[in-house]
Fold Mannitol dehydrogenase family protein.
Amino acid sequence: MTTMIKLNQAALARLPDGVAGPAYARSNVARSIVHIGVGGFFRAHQAVYLDRLLHLPDQAEWGYCGVGLLPHDAGIRDAMLAQDCLYTVLERSAQGDVPRVIGSVLEFLYAPDDAEAVLEKLADPGTRIVALTITEGGYYINQGNGEFDAAHPDIAHDLAHPRTPRCSFGYLAEALQRRRDRGLMPFTVMSCDNLQNNGDLTRSMLLAFAGLRDPGLADWLARHGAFPNSMVDRITPVTTDEHRALLRQRFGLADAWPVTTEPFLQWVIEDHFPAGRPAWELVGAQMTDDVAPYELMKLRLLNAGHQALCYIGMLLGYEFAHEAVGDAGIRQLLGRMLDAEVTPLLPAVAGIDLALYKRTLVERFANPAIRDQLARIGTDGSARIPKFVLPSVREQLARGGPTTLLAFTVACWFRYLAGRSDQGIALPLNDVHAERLRDKALRGGEDPADLLSLHELFGELSDDPRFAAQMTDALGRLYRDGTRAALNHVLAATQ
């Protein structure tokens, strides 16, 4: 490639061959949606939908202002501002790579540099929706009881310093207070995080925070606020220097922070936006009165499927999801678990063929171009296993149904927590409870009782004899016979 083009607004007129970009006038687009948490997933998902919409006539009233609240957002701030908030989405599949420059983010504000600018943007009457991708930790949920964690140091700080907050709830509450004082209605708060009932959860946690700050604010928000639920789906690996180099070498485009993703894209949204909303349905999003069936399908099939393949995959020495799914034994484990132990628990989902959905999942996991790291999928198992796997265990136990493969998946997590693969390779453990989990895994060894005693994770399953027996058998085989032999045994037992 002889010519290298550095991505910015001026470069849009001369993008390299094969690279599409925004054909709309970005200067005419309103910055009416504030998005907090401008990470890879938001840029590969929600911003892509809006970019597509902006290519249609009469849609310019909707554009994004991105906000970074945390010190580690400085990197994305520097990249976005240097490129006039443009960036490249690279869709990757076995059929090839398709790059597109996204223009729907018009502005980026970095709260640690200027909290007041962020607060005034949120309080501005032109801000109609505030969307969030802040990860589970950003909602300050006490994992022990599911209630708001009012004792968290961030919450204590924001209650004491409302004009210089640290966390999203502090910013939202202060901005909403200003809107209330100015006679404005609240903006719609839209969670786009991978949490069940994410809108209801956001409402509950934000009202709890607002109530601690000012009961009158909480009452006003409860009466007038809107918190639509949504379900989001697109596999988006972490951006690496390899991705930046690929764009430079193959397409002649220098982008400081591109995002790579799969072709698949899904968004189901509860249609409750009193202040108006973009016409997302024109570009493939599904508007509905009830997100719950779609959400349950995704959490129990896609997310639980990820858990089924990532820990055993790492124990067997694989690094990427496509490698794990390419293993015939893991593929059988995944398929049988979803078919026999999860699908019978799911309600019918309008417009969805579950058999086709599962086949598509396996194809997505097997996409070799994505190179989705198993370590990424296995992050925060102490949050993901209880949300994605254990609900199916509970329901099957209650109806006397099969749980052998679900239990084997949990046993693989327990074995993974010990820290080394069957080949002796050190395994990464990225979990908020990492030290405690590893200590219990090493102390318990092939006996799962120590880990099962964590009632905040397992609840009543800690004392369920059938589940304990299955865990004891599976974990014992993983330690005594090795992962491959344990996998072969469970597959033979569930034919």
Notes: The chain has 21 helices and 13 strands. The radius of gyration is 23 Å. The mean pLDDT is 96.
